[in-house]
Amino acid sequence: MKEVKTQVQFIDICDELAGQRIDNFLRNRLKNVPKSMIYRILRKGEVRVNKKRIKPEYKLQPGDVIRVPPMQISETEEKAAPSTKLAKVAELERCILHEDDHILVLNKPSGTAVHGGSGLSFGAIEGLRALRPDARFLELVHRIDRDTSGILLVAKKRSALRHLQAQFREKTVRKFYFALVMGEWKAKMKVINAPLLKNEVNSIVRVNPKGKPSETHFKVLERFENGTLVQASPVTGRTHQIRVHAQYAGHSLAWDDRYGDPRFDAYTGKFGLNRLFLHAANLKFVHPGTEEQMEISAPMDCILEKTLEGMRKATQKAKHVE
What's the pTM? Predict the structure, then answer.
């Protein structure tokens, strides 16, 4: 069986990736590498974090730099990149909002994971690498949930990755999401500051005093008969932060399979909604190459737009009846 040698990798850890055990992180990241080999290179000290040996249970910290050594793996273990002819990959080409020598900005569709793993062979980053086979470097700067649509920032240079991740770490990046929530969101409820704790077994996140500090700003954009369109701006970047903070406030997001309310799902389903109504609509950051302020906006898909239009008509009809 023919073997191939991989190249040495350096992986920068951002705030969203921090908190994971190094062994679990590598198992998700190195999908072509057998689990036994991952633990072997950890045990032998060939994997370094900040140039130091670490144990498999080491938890990654923001700013860590992981060195993954070259490895010999069998050619049959190599997974082919997704074909550019696949519908999902071709769709990603149409979803690129901005691209230059330093960054690529994608309007990620709902239902597409940011990377493969957990039984998924395809993710946005794998698709982009298939579309850009000549790109020497393509790495995710941050992550958004699989069911969330909208802006996903990708670095095309290591220097750009570090520059952008530093901005996320220092909380200078401004992120704005559109979310459709159940009920009447009070205009005075502008900030939710509640610690979040993630259950490592089922990944369910709850407000808990023992959790990590978490802050989200909310602004009412439009009111409907049975719901509210809000703008959510997370200051911290915790897992499911907007969804859990909205639920904590008593206003679950539409079609949230973890934290939602079936009654609101049934109501919004009348207008064609069949996905989580959470969209990363706007991102403000400093361009890593030009040092200029950049603002990227991503349009909502037709399902979200039609849902809002249907709710507007229903609200007008209810007011007319009154």
Answer: 0.76
